[in-house]
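Q: How do we represent a protein-ligand complex in a form that can be generated token by token?
A: Start from the inputs.
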Amino acid sequence: MKDTLHKFMLESAPVRGELVEMSVTWQQVLARRDYPVAVRTLLGEMLSAAALLSANLKFNGMIVMQIHGDGPVKLLVVECDAELRLRATARIVEDAVIADDATLRQLVNANGEGRFAMTLDPKDRLPGQQAYQGIVPLDGDQVATVIENYMLRSEQLDTKLWLAADDHVARGVLLQKLPAQGEKNPAAETAETWNRLSMLGNTLRREELLSTDIETLRHRLFWEETLRVFAPQYPAFHCSCSREKVSNMLKMLGQPEIEEALASQEKLDINCDFCGRHYTFDAVDCAQLFIVETSDHAIAQSATRH
Ligand SMILES: [Zn+2]
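Then emit the structure tokens for the protein with zinc ion bound:
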């Protein structure tokens, strides 16, 4: 099974949809960390949602979806770029005991302080251009509901999501009602189609979503409709971390802070939360971070002398 995302449009109404299934990508996220079952489910659902929204918003850049929790889970984050390359991670309170059937509320909204954030970071930012970020309270008991509410509020788009994830696969379905297109699609007819399809989607059980490939799901849900189906897209795992990025992060911390850290340890060990890659900076590496410009200058000078 290849990780695949399908997009389609209804011929009879201004409604578009997507289905996604990720096994390889999801396995690569899971291979790095051992998450409690309930956290794994939540992160897998977010992974599906990020792929669906990234393809849906047709946004040329990175979508960062985060849940900031006030319970045993402090942070869930999924990133997806315009080529559907994804990475994801979760930060859990040390020694937290998490029940397999813990709810969204118990995990990240225990005191009603949990937040859902979506960041749209354009690929080629113009000077001074900022990433756009929307933050909302965790309005719903499921990831799907939280995102549906977010889409309605911030994008004014009626969106329905059905998401599921287990050890093997993360799968999801998205439907979206587009703004009315004049006389061609009378509002009442569109509303009728939308309601019918939403109800049909609501009959999807988690087990069915987990055990049925998206081709079959599409047929099962939309066999009565005439669909225009687009060429499939292929999500994949990709981590954008690099030694250069870690170097820049250390430079931003500043020399005094780095020297202080090195006073108590021989070298700095930095692990990427997303892919587990390990970066080591010893005293010499750290010193070099802050003398790069001088040495470049020296090299340039010695080169001119020869
Ligand atoms: Zn990484």
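The longest strand covers residues 15-22. DSSP finds eleven helices and 13 strands in the chain.
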